[in-house]
């Protein structure tokens, strides 16, 4: 029997226009055939892979195909993916993982460029027909074609910067020549994708069509009836060095703010390349190859590639069919409302209930704004809103495959909800709690079917944070846990399996980091200095600002619970934090916490100068160690206690839930790189100065293996 998801993909593939299916020639990854009008249809269907990527083997075969095309007297060449999921998702970075010799990479890249240049030089119309994702090397291959035809829903991007690289297969000179340097540099420096309609406006694609019109569009391109995108205004201006210098200066300032050069060299290297060689494609090509090869062998790129594979590992855990089509969410606050909106956006039918009807109305309003921003077509937005049903009476619980509780973080409140909804749930449905820290052994006492009870801990903001902790307890069935992981995969989230324990994994490791920041603040270190030190280490925001964003009330509740359960391995909670929460100064949501917030939710802060020798005069490195080493120590303890199965899941969870400095490859990878013995010695030194909370855990020795 074919699984439902597999059947859907097969039907999608059958509906694709792929040219003649008989005759021609078949390689391992490519196949081609010539239609009656003399057009060659070249299809990429990478063997043994669910997604097309460009490997050395794929490019070597393409080289042979291009030799064949010369002898076929073809009127045109169409390049398409035969996979329903998309065109090409970029280069296969498995080819480069662990490579440390730039000369070797450079030789391989020159060979790849020769092949793409051969495609670009063909004297016949070449047409890339793109559906789904067209990223990285896939877009660079499409850029070497004379025409690009996009199907509705296609997306285009050069996300190499997210791997510590810049485009390496011609994108640095072909994209600026096509859409203009400023637009092209914006795409390459941010790694952001553009959808088909925006790509058409930019001139990146020549037409946007539906599948049934692909053959007609191809015929028009071959016959010269599709207008080829012309270079955008500004290309000539930026061929002049003074214009590039002025623009590059502005780009560097923006890049430094988002991606400091000492941590992320790739954007800055790309700006240097464009400033020096923009307008000279040959010089840019040579410089691109050299720069790409050097970056690839650097620590940042290797660590970011490690993070990429950590993501792939979690995605594999979310494979399979969950059987979940209807979701009922209880609690329409920020978390519950956003969980409901995300599930609806991803194609599930969702009912949302709350004791306060106004909360449901506000949540639907937020969801509508989110759909307007994130979903591209008006039909998509309408359908998503139709799938999100306000449920003032809570009747949706009876038809849901999955019920998610997202009410206040109090055990007695959650237990009352479970006692109310469990009798009304249909047989076989899963009950999940979004608790961020309460052990499930406490909560399951109110659930008559503990085997179908699980933790689904989303992180705020739900629409941006990819990770979901799948929290197991000793009564949960393997089938329930498997369904929960597959549910995360189906909604585009990364499942991280953890065992029920105080704070689970992420909050348990993050809380010492946050409370140590409170302790430093108590010692007289200005909050701006603390946050600046964390950002200098590589965190996306400082711990003080993060605490305000999470909510000081939530931080307090979790910190008190962990202090009670874990004793002096956790810092003491300062009295002023309790008083702030009692006064309603709970952070950004209240407009005031440790920072004061403006009407846009931005913290008001002044630059702080610290006098030498004062209590607050600490080096950034010293402050960073005070913050980060307790986090590492707690992660090691979680590994030792079996809260998480292995260091890779722990690293992935912290990167994707907290933004832990991705260029360091994950906190435990960073610990190994820095040296386990060195960290243990630093913890002992901090223990002597500041107390038992810095005592090295017994699990460090095992991390050496």
TrEMBL record:
<dbReference type="InterPro" id="IPR050136">
    <property type="entry name" value="FA_oxidation_alpha_subunit"/>
</dbReference>
<dbReference type="InterPro" id="IPR036291">
    <property type="entry name" value="NAD(P)-bd_dom_sf"/>
</dbReference>
<dbReference type="Pfam" id="PF00725">
    <property type="entry name" value="3HCDH"/>
</dbReference>
<feature type="domain" description="3-hydroxyacyl-CoA dehydrogenase NAD binding">
    <location>
        <begin position="327"/>
        <end position="498"/>
    </location>
</feature>
<keyword id="KW-0456">Lyase</keyword>
<comment type="pathway">
    <text>Lipid metabolism; fatty acid beta-oxidation.</text>
</comment>
<dbReference type="InterPro" id="IPR001753">
    <property type="entry name" value="Enoyl-CoA_hydra/iso"/>
</dbReference>
<dbReference type="InterPro" id="IPR029045">
    <property type="entry name" value="ClpP/crotonase-like_dom_sf"/>
</dbReference>
<dbReference type="Pfam" id="PF02737">
    <property type="entry name" value="3HCDH_N"/>
</dbReference>
<dbReference type="InterPro" id="IPR008927">
    <property type="entry name" value="6-PGluconate_DH-like_C_sf"/>
</dbReference>
<keyword id="KW-0276">Fatty acid metabolism</keyword>
<keyword id="KW-0511">Multifunctional enzyme</keyword>
<protein>
    <recommendedName>
        <fullName>enoyl-CoA hydratase</fullName>
        <ecNumber>4.2.1.17</ecNumber>
    </recommendedName>
</protein>
<dbReference type="InterPro" id="IPR006176">
    <property type="entry name" value="3-OHacyl-CoA_DH_NAD-bd"/>
</dbReference>
<dbReference type="InterPro" id="IPR006108">
    <property type="entry name" value="3HC_DH_C"/>
</dbReference>
<keyword id="KW-0520">NAD</keyword>
<comment type="similarity">
    <text>In the central section; belongs to the 3-hydroxyacyl-CoA dehydrogenase family.</text>
</comment>
<keyword id="KW-0443">Lipid metabolism</keyword>
<keyword id="KW-0560">Oxidoreductase</keyword>
<feature type="domain" description="3-hydroxyacyl-CoA dehydrogenase C-terminal">
    <location>
        <begin position="503"/>
        <end position="597"/>
    </location>
</feature>
<comment type="similarity">
    <text>In the N-terminal section; belongs to the enoyl-CoA hydratase/isomerase family.</text>
</comment>
<dbReference type="Pfam" id="PF00378">
    <property type="entry name" value="ECH_1"/>
</dbReference>
<dbReference type="InterPro" id="IPR006180">
    <property type="entry name" value="3-OHacyl-CoA_DH_CS"/>
</dbReference>
<keyword id="KW-0442">Lipid degradation</keyword>
